[in-house]
Amino acid sequence: MADSIRFILVRTSHPGNIGAAARAIRTMGFSRLGLVAPHRFPHADATATAAGADDVLDGIAITPTLVEAVADCTLVLGCTARRRGVQLEELSPRQGALRALAASVDGQAAIVFGNERTGLENDELMSCHAAVHIPSVADFSSLNLAQAVQVLAYELRLAIMEQAPPLATAAKIELPATIEQLEYFFTHLEQMLENIDFHKGRSPRTIMQRLRRLFLRANLEEREVRILRGIFDDAQRMARLARPANGRAEIEGGGKA
Ligand code: SAH
User: Fold this and answer.
1) Nearest CA to ligand 1 atom 6
2) What's the pLDDT score for residue 250?
3) Residue whose CA is closest, atom 21 of ligand 1?
4) What is the pLDDT of residue 256?
5) Which residues have CB under 6 Å of ligand 1?
6) Residue from 80, 94, 115, 149 whose mutation best tests the ligand 1 pocket (most atoms within 8 A of CB)
7) DSSP designation for 139
8) ∠ CA(178), CA(224), CA(34), 5° rounding?
9) Disulfide check for 49: which of 3, 20, 79, 208 has CB 3.0–4.6 Å away?
């Protein structure tokens, strides 16, 4: 199960934090660390702070974007020190750990951490199913990056150790959709809304943010994604038919385009 849970550090500035994060997850039985566009890596500071967790450092996967780092995941949790404009469901580390563990039974889960100064961008949080907030005090809420990683890794270890048998054996019949499938789904949704002239000249950005939130919260299964995309296909087909340019709307729709 620990192999199906990965920790992703996004745009990390200090290589020392990368090594310290590697050590943090290694002590809790995890080994999968991913870096999204790190400022400096490999680096002597990372090797030093890893304090011997070299196997974790050696196995690090580096990707240019977060979506690539979590493309095959069915659950992505974004850790944030404070609340953002993007209203994501917010979980405690314990709730997040339980959710990740459940997802790791038959899929892949990722816990994502932001840059030391700026945290996670709103766009990055929009690829997350939920946010995790370590309940720090409001006027000094930001933990050191590697320490935040440690808290999550610890909660995950506790959850694995205490895990009740039903969680592991709960038979899921339907496969959950991966982030890659959801990204294709969102692109299709956006195109379809464009085709049916839903936006009427307004920016699609806000509505897409809301719809992403809605569909990520719904934890869609593969089959549900296929059904919805089938509906989008039909809507696009009808929109094509209804276009005045081919003259059919006037005939079929009594002149109302
Ligand atoms: N000023 C940044 C802080 C970044 S700290 C901000 O406000 O977002 C670096 C990373 O550590 C954060 O992006 C987050 O992933 C994690 N982190 C720090 N404190 C946290 C907290 N209280 N809860 C959850 N994650 C936290």
Assistant:
1) 119
2) 46
3) 81
4) 39
5) 79-82, 113-114, 116-117, 119-120, 132-134, 136, 141-143, 145, 148
6) 80
7) G
8) 10
9) 20
pLDDT in tens, 237-252: 999 999 876 554 444 4
